[in-house]
Input
Amino acid sequence: MPALPEYLTRTLLENYGVPVVEGFFVRIDDNLPDELPEFPIFLKAQIPGATSRKKHGLVRKVETRFEFDSNLDDLLSPGDRGQADGVLAAKGLDLKAEYYAGCMLDFGSEKQLPGGILLFSTEGGSGVEGRSGTLVTIPFSLLSPIKAEDIVKELAVIDTLENPDEVAVFLKNLISTFIGYRLTVLEVNPIGVLSDGSLISVDCRAEFEKSAVKKAEKYLFFPPGLKSSSDLTPLERVVELINNADPAGTGFFRQNRETPPDGALRVATNLCGGGGKMLWEMTTGSRTDIYTMNESDTSGGLSAFKSYRILRTIFAQKGAQVLLLTGSGMAFQNQHHLAAAVWKALRESPTPLPALLRFGGTDEDNARELFERVSADLPVQVKTYPAEIFPNAMVDDIEAIAMDTPPHVQPPPAPEGEPSIRVEIPPGNIYFYPEKWNSEEEPPSISACPTGYLLWNKGKLEINPEAKCIGCLMCETASLLEGNGEIRIDLEMPAEVD
Ligand code: SF4
Output
């Protein structure tokens, strides 16, 4: 899912009455204004896809015109962090307190309609990793806007909140921005509290689906005249190919261009949905002892075939010491299918990583049970968590599970012979070996197919033309766990991941 940098997100917020810190945006070839706002000024490089700018020196406080000019030059030059679209220059503020707020989509369930979720905390800015106890979650409808007085009632659980009316109006306008522009994530961190109790957005970011952008609003999301960031890494190109071949669901992957700080733990991430990304940023955004190898977002009901391919790419990152996978706990993707993809990637990758896995959403118990059964036979350690666990707990376990040098292993050979079934979308080849199932009785691999695409007809495998393969991997999983390995699925990968 594309991320919108701060300077563009500010415009969306202002259009719905959310105040933002005074500032201006400087592109590479722009002339500088003769007059600047009062110093200090904060310069923030606007690099597409980059997060945690503060800890990587991409946010700088300047006190003089000379410092302004020289830092601006430096931030606009291409570096190992990528090329900035430009630099946002924002006025420094004297803040009494910092809060946090974020909106994300909730895809709903059988019992609950889809909607939005607002997260609010009275701890914002950096150093927020201990904030789990102060977080308030407010669900809202995408159709009828929530009223400020209803938000005030929800905020009553925070006894220390001095300005609930101001906060409620700010949050109401934040929700209106989220709904109005059909965003998937909208975050303000921090919300600054000024001495008179009023609130202002100090830093913000948004994510959106390209297809949800209205024609008339394209100029807000894709402003003309910007240099594009077509500096894809070989692995990012792999994910682009994966998405082209299997467009359903979100498969976003961007590698960190910066050099890891000495001694930092290098964590590869698979964050499932905007909620997972937000939780990861909230938990680790200010930590210099954790280096995030990549941003990622796999969500929106993608197939397990696609999850597997993206995980294989995530595992192929040189220098990664551990994988952390987490969603927001409201996954649209069946978590048992996701677990099957993780298991397959762990056993078939030449460079598997020890993994911390937090499954949340549908069928999560089966997801965790799968790993209870198979973990002992994997070449790396795996730990799973229930959805109720806040990612803080996972972050605390990174050091214990991370490996200085994760193993290089010989992956199992590709299945032999011709595939019995070639699935076009999502792409994959299914192999059935009748010699491994000498019985008239239906094998568990076929009974496990949730769509009825695989049929057992008098001791023979057939496909049901009325049904569809959804790429869930349940047939192969059951074949390995309950059967005799009679079904194998081959999901081809570009050579870069090996
Ligand atoms: S054949 Fe059935 S069980 Fe196997 S991947 Fe396709 S839908 Fe899933």
Notes: Confidence is low (pLDDT under 50) at residues 127-133.
